[in-house]
Amino acid sequence: xxxxPETATAAAEVAARFRSLVDADDVGSIKQTQHLMCLPSYxxxxxxxxxxxxxxxxxxxxxxDALITILGRLQDSNAVLTHFNEYSERxxxxxxxxxxxxxxxxxxxxxxxxxIFSKLRSMKSRLAATYPDAFPDGAMTKTMDQRPNLExxxx
Length: 155
Prior knowledge:
This protein is mostly helical. It has a domain at 5-102. It contains 4 helices and no strands. It has helices at 5-21, 24-34, 43-130, 139-143. Helix 2 crosses helix 3. It is rod-shaped, with a radius of gyration of 43 Å. The protein starts with a helix and ends in a 12-residue tail after the last helix. Pfam families: KxDL. Residues 70-135 form the KxDL domain.
């Protein structure tokens, strides 16, 4: 089978590009291991295919190494996150009962304070009704309840 000059030139160019990707020693070792030197009249194409195969093997090995590195990092991250979750769970178990008791205490304090302020408002209104001169006009509405409503949503 005869090769046209264009095919030979293209094959030589492809072989040169592939050879630039890998070491010449690697090409020689692959030639020895695969016994490709005995292919008749396919010298340039065999070299190109050999170099291409080596380049693909190197790229695949590099990808595999990268994937193994990523897998190791992900396993390390998973171990750290698992440890942190266990630690957080222990800490939450320690403080949850204390937090619940403090929440109940705050709710009872709020109820007590609401009761006290309602009593103060009723006493103030009784005083204003009994002694109208004690409070000037408009003073009762301003001082009646100046607390913000904590249960209404913020705007």
